[in-house]
Design a protein that fits this description.
Elements: E1 8-14, E2 18-25, E3 30-37, E4 49-50, H1 52-66, E5 75-82, E6 86-90, E7 108-109, H2 117-126, H3 143-153, H4 155-159, E8 162-167, H5 168-177, E9 182-183, H6 184-190, H7 201-206, H8 214-217, E10 224-225, H9 237-243, E11 250-256, H10 257-265, E12 285-290, E13 294-300, E14 309-313, E15 321-327, H11 331-339, H12 344-351, H13 357-369, E16 383-385, E17 403-405, H14 413-440, E18 447-451, H15 458-468, E19 472-475, H16 480-492, H17 501-507, E20 512-514, H18 523-548
Parallel strand pairs: 1-5, 5-11, 9-10, 12-18, 18-19
Antiparallel strand pairs: 1-2, 2-3, 4-7, 6-7, 6-8, 12-13, 13-15, 14-15, 16-17, 19-20
């Protein structure tokens, strides 16, 4: 009997500044990964745009890299996730410009683009009932205000020419399969779609976008399906040639990138780790997907949390509800604070290829404290309000700005390290603020599950454990977002069918390792220290919060 070839799935993740792909085994193990950068343009302040043509080309490049040397027949499915950016195409599916400069190749309004803040405020004041599903406030990072901005500011050059408005994840699945079916993940989370009823025509009419009702909402999506559903007949001939795969390879309905991370980590089997969530429903867990921004996700019965998006039905796992908190910038804010400091040049000279700058800063803080256990206390006189790009949750105020309290005239490498520490502490306190809002609404969260780029920063993870007082779990497969994307391809191939959460947990292909507290402290001491430190810092956080309000 001939030897049976191993089966693989491909996951593609389009983040803010790069495209990644992974070849994943049936057991959920990463076989190979690849990454390519993508361009970002800022034609005006708070305007961020990209090119869907370039993004697709980079997707093809990374897929070819990870599948090199593997028989095409071994690839049984492919799934895509991406940022919730807005892609605009004309009737012939060609790019349409989204900026005054008029370059048609720059046809993507990025997720972090805040040009539509005024439109979002008007939509909020309109008070339509759909706002109850987005925490009561329309964010400029969602698609309705961006669409309204395009109509009001680029009517001739964009709006009148546009025939298709895609969320970026849906654009990718369309390019791969030719299917215009949209994922419930994107439409429910970013477009106000509500299954099973569908679109609320009165909402679009009330905000001045009644022209989107034409042809049964064909411009923004007439047909929907849950994430991981098979699309069309699989890869089209053209897409298969672009990607270097077989035509007909299964394509799964897409996810937003953060939701792919949630899918890849939150259902992990944690038996034997003695975690407080063990034996409890999935609702005792919250996934933090930490990258350029951070999203906080939990699947649950429907609960309305002020300032927190959702509840969303079938947005991450079919048949389950989702609440989504978030911080608009996390990794990007840390980069901003570190690279904008006067001592950054000195930091680069010190690193000199020996490690990355953040590993060096973590070690530098430890040496400043003389022991890892005292690092948190170094930031006791320096405080950061982290809303440099507004507050997504739970204040839901995109107009908020950041601030730093406790600066001196000193600008040494030590000062840079302390600012870096204070920024991460502020972000962790933002997570605590979201947790408290969810708890007030009835959520009982016992354990945090982290993935994404920042979860590879040991100090970032430890600070979150210290600040929230909750255990933090990290996946054994560190690229949980890519694993989540590959799961979509596995679902579409019909090798895995996640019909309910028990099936999902049973088939979940992510293992976990528990984040451990500093070994020099006893378990009792750690618990007391965590609670007392979080309380002291939260008092400062509350003072800053009152000032901001």
């Amino acid at each position: 009997m001939p030897e049976q070839l191993e089966v693989f799935y491909v996951g593609v993740d389009v983040g803010t500044a790069s495209v990644r792909a992974a070849l994943v085994t049936r057991e959920g193990l990463l076989k190979s990964t690849a990454q390519e950068p993508i361009g970002i343009w800022e034609p005006e302040s708070d305007h961020y745009v990209q090119s869907s043509t370039e993004i697709w080309e980079k997707c093809c490049t990374v897929v070819k890299k990870v599948t090199h040397g593997v028989e095409k027949s071994q690839i049984r499915g492919i799934g895509f996730d991406a940022t919730c950016s807005l892609v605009v195409l004309d009737q012939s599916f060609q790019p349409v410009p989204v900026s005054q400069e008029g370059d048609p190749q720059r046809n993507v309004v990025m997720w972090m683009d805040h040009r539509a803040t005024e439109q979002a405020d008007r939509i909020t004041k309109n008070g339509h009932r759909v706002l109850s599903r987005v925490g009561g406030v329309m964010s400029p990072e969602m698609q309705p205000p961006k669409l309204l901005w395009l109509k009001e500011n680029l009517k001739e050059n964009c709006w009148n020419k546009a025939s298709h408005f895609f969320d970026l994840p849906d654009f990718l699945s369309w390019k791969a399969s030719g299917s215009l079916t949209r994922s419930l993940c994107t439409l429910v989370c970013k477009w106000t779609y509500c299954p099973p009823e569908g679109w609320e025509a009165s909402f679009w009419t009330s905000i001045g976008l009644d022209d989107l009702l034409e042809n049964n909402f064909s411009k923004i999506g007439s047909v929907t399906c849950p994430p991981g559903s098979p699309l069309g007949e699989g890869l089209t001939q053209e897409a298969a040639a672009d990607l270097g795969l077989d035509p007909g390879t299964a394509v799964g309905a897409s996810l937003i990138d953060a939701h792919a991370g949630g899918l890849g980590v939150i259902g992990a089997d944690v038996k034997g780790f003695h975690l407080p969530c063990e034996g409890l429903p999935i609702t005792a867990r919250m996934a933090l997907i930490c990258g350029t921004s951070t999203c906080h996700m939990i699947s649950e019965q429907p609960r309305f949390v002020p300032g927190v998006w959702g509840p969303y039905l079938s947005a991450m796992v079919p048949g389950l509800w989702l609440n989504e908190g978030g911080q608009s910038v996390t990794g990007r804010l840390i980069d901003h604070m570190v690279k904008g400091h006067t001592a950054y040049t000195q930091l680069q000279e010190q690193v000199q290829q020996r490690s990355n700058i953040y590993s060096y800063l973590n070690n530098h803080l430890s040496s400043m404290a003389n022991s890892c256990s005292a690092v948190d206390l170094l930031g006791s006189s320096l405080h950061v309000w982290p809303d440099f790009h507004g507050n997504r949750s739970p204040l839901a105020d995109p107009t908020l700005k950041g601030m730093v309290v406790g600066l001196s005239l000193s600008q040494t490498l030590d000062d840079l390290a302390l600012l870096y520490l204070a920024t991460m502490q502020a972000l962790a306190l933002g997570t605590l603020h979201i947790l408290e809002a969810m708890k007030e609404a009835g959520h009982e969260i016992r354990t945090l599950f982290l993935c994404g780029g920042l979860s590879k920063n040991n100090l970032f993870v430890q600070i979150h454990a210290n600040t929230t007082g909750l255990p933090v779990v990290l996946p054994d497969q560190t690229e949980a977002v890519l694993v989540g994307a590959a799961v979509l391809g596995a679902c579409a191939s019909r090798h895995y069918i996640f019909s309910d959460m028990s099936q999902y947990q049973h088939n979940n292909i992510t293992k976990v390792s528990r984040w451990k507290s500093t070994e020099t402290l006893s378990a009792v001491t750690v618990e007391i220290w965590i609670c007392s430190f979080a309380q002291v810092e939260m008092e400062v956080h509350s003072v800053l919060l009152q000032s901001a309000i």
